[in-house]
Design brief:
Distance between the termini: 131 Å
Shape: rod-shaped
Order of helices and strands: H
Radius of gyration: 44 Å
Strand content: under 5%
Mean pLDDT: 89
Number of strands: 0
Largest sheet: none
Structural class: mainly alpha
Low-confidence stretches: none
Oligomer: single chain
Amino acid sequence: MEFITSVFKLENIIYIIVTVIVVIMTTIRQFSIQDKKNQDNNDQILDNLFKIENQNGKILYLLELHSHDIKMIKKDISMLENRISRIERSHADLYEKLGGKKDDNS
């Protein structure tokens, strides 16, 4: 009888050891899978950040380019306004010389 109880105890100990080993191996496997997924996600995030950095460089270049264009357009507008003002004065002077009144809005 004692032999049978000792065999059952030994069988239980072996069962417990095997169960613990299986649980440890499964846990290690799950952590390994999760770590690989995290690494893949981190790599994807780094790739996206690199793409964003490249796009930022392009955007800065375009902003510099267009700010120069805007400055040139403002300069051209100012020059055109001056020309229009001179043409209007010239037109008014010519109208006066032809006999029109100064306050006539024709």
